[in-house]
Amino acid sequence: MRYSQVLIPTMKEVPSEAEVISHQLMLRAGFIKKLTSGIYTYLPYGLAAIRRVENIVREEMNRAGAQELSMPMVQPADLWKESGRYEKYGPELLRFKDRHERESCLGPTHEEVITDIARKEMHSYRDLPVNLYQIQTKFRDEIRPRFGLMRGREFIMKDAYSFDVDDEAAEVSYRKMYDAYNRIFERCGLEFRCVEADSGAIGGSFSHEFMVLADTGEDTIAVCNECNWAANLEKAEVKMSDRRAGVEQREMVKVETPGKRKVQSVCEFLGIGPDQLVKTLVLLADGEPVAVMLRGDRELEEVKLKNYLGVTDIRPAEDKEIFDATGVPSGYLGPINSKTRLLADQEVPAMVNLTVGANEKNYHLQNVNFGRDFEVTEVADFRQLTKDDPCPSCGESIRLVEGIEVGHIFKLGTSYSESMNAYYQDRDGNERPLVMGCYGIGVSRVVAAAIEQNHDDNGIIFPVPLAPYQVTVLNLGLNDPEVSAAAERIYGQLNEAGFDTFIDDRDERPGIKFKDADLLGFPFRITVGKRFKEKAMVEIRCRQDGTTEDIGIDDLVSHISSKLAN
RNA sequence: CGGGGCGUAGCGCAGCCUGGUUAGCGCGCCUGCCUUGGGAGCAGGAGGUCGCAGGUUCGAAUCCUGCCGCCCCGACCA
């Protein structure tokens, strides 16, 4: 490709709309152009990078036995009503009516459509297993789109759906996708981890997320330093240690704590540590108030609570709502004489002589003990794992890292096939629901994540497999026929040798060409300029490690080949 | 949804508080000269419904009202 003929509008300055580095670089390098909030045009160079990812995904999906198809983006609401998600999905599902007043929506995902196909076309165990996938634009009306392609409203996704005769067979399909995903992200040249995850709105029993490690991930993941356990923090199980034995239970006392409402101020006032205090948080779960007891220095993990309660929406109550629900102003809540449904983190019953709110303004209770002074029947793991907790799998130390979710695989089971009547006949003539799995990859997000993970002050450092062009040739002698001819010859040779080659043949000064080459992230840069005149050599520079070498034209092809080989 | 901020040339911004000629600056763009291994220099030039609509005023980018768009933050707390 010739720079003189392609639209790659690079920018020196950082547009003020971009917060994270991948977004800034994608704008500066002319990958994308925003049309409106969360919706972008993919310009030629950005699209080329997306195609790289798509091709890898496609090859590996096909290799894993999946078949490509393409489903409609506009979907009838009836289908979503059948699965029950028309009500459940929330405002992320963009709904509208067509000219005949038919309710419709834009597909944020395609379980309904694929299940509709399955029930119409898969009637026999002989038809199974089947795995169908597509690579397609999705629309989700995100509350707050941000970070460019990282969380857009419109984005490119590969989604696959498997259908099997039973759980065991579905397990095999799931495993195939698990392996395929590992191959895909390895081939992309990305540093990633596969973690246990929450299955969220899609539903289902079990899921893994594929996370690209980067400093600005939207998720935090916990990783064991010893074994191979890893989990999304939302889901990461806290392993309990019993610490209760042998401590004397003191007599409960009521203390006045005027104006002390926050954990920190109560602790300072009473001269205790936050690990001796238990806070009582009030949340609204699908509108119903729920109180949760948690050690003072712990964080509530809302996803765990949400899953425990089986609700779709959860949020902290505001002060007024707290008072309405409990009759107590926030800051003085406790378990004794609580009027609200009360849950406790598993850690709380193991604590001794704890301090809690007295359910009375300006008073707390000290030396309160579970079993003696109060009971809670609903006890579970509600808190967030910390870096100081042991690995729930092997008990060794863990660390927390940031990750960008680029892939997610789910075992769906039969929830969709049952609600939508997708049954097949088994060998014995019995009707049985199809057992499903679904598997997503955020294709456009992979590009963003790759840049987030691979960049420096000068711009993008593309992993070779994702680079739109592996090598760029800088013609620094546009007005020098000898140099230009050499640059063109090299460009032709490399193309012929099968490299995706770019040539900067613009009438620009050298500095601009160097800067743009760095910004655009070509893995290799060949400079044809004065050194060619002097010594008949050109310079080849590796973007990744910054090494440069002078080399004769005839050695270029073999040199690049060997570089790319490792 | 709540809170905050911003909308002035392709990009980044100033001007607004305290209304008053042709609305500025840097980058980019066009023309010419010059320069040619890390975003050069000189000279000339093009490009603006100052987000939209209404209002106040002799006069509005500037003050007021409404609308639209964009960006950021948000439930560490009981």
Name a few traits of the molecule.
566 residues, alpha+beta, BirA Bifunctional Protein, domain 2, YbaK protein, Rossmann fold, 3 domains, 9-stranded mixed sheet, 5-stranded mixed sheet, 15 helices, 27% helix, globular, RNA-binding
Give the structure's gist in a few sentences:
This protein is an alpha+beta fold and about 575 residues long.
List strands and helices in order, with pairings.
Blueprint: H1 21-28, E1 32-36, E2 39-42, H2 44-63, E3 67-68, E4 74-76, H3 77-83, H4 85-88, E5 95-97, E6 103-106, H5 111-121, E7 130-139, E8 154-164, H6 167-187, E9 192-196, E10 206-213, E11 219-224, E12 230-232, E13 253-256, H7 263-270, E14 278-285, E15 288-295, H8 302-309, E16 314-316, H9 319-326, E17 341-345, E18 354-357, E19 363-368, E20 378-380, E21 398-413, H10 415-419, E22 423-425, E23 431-433, E24 435-442, H11 443-453, E25 455-456, E26 459-460, E27 471-475, H12 481-496, E28 501-504, H13 510-520, E29 524-528, H14 530-535, E30 537-542, E31 548-552, H15 556-565
Parallel strand pairs: 3-7, 15-17, 17-20, 27-28, 27-29
Antiparallel strand pairs: 1-2, 4-6, 5-6, 7-8, 8-24, 9-10, 10-21, 11-12, 11-21, 13-19, 14-15, 14-16, 18-19, 21-24, 22-23, 25-26, 29-30, 30-31
Helix pairs in contact: 1-11, 2-6, 2-11
This protein binds one RNA strand of 78 nucleotides through β14 and α13.
What Rg is obtained from the alpha carbons, in whole angstroms? 29 Å
**What would the average pLDDT be, to the nearest integer?**
91
Major β-sheet annotation: 9 strands, mixed
Instruction: Determine the number of helices (DSSP H or I, runs of at least 4 residues).
Output: 15
Structural class: alpha+beta
Going by CATH, the homologous superfamily of the largest domain would be Bira Bifunctional Protein, Domain 2
Helicity range: 25-40%
Indicate the CATH topology of the largest domain.
BirA Bifunctional Protein, domain 2
- SS elements, strand count: 31
> What coarse outline follows from CA principal-axis ratios?
globular
CATH architecture of the largest domain: 2-Layer Sandwich
As a percent range, the share of strand residues is 25-35%
Oligomer category: single chain
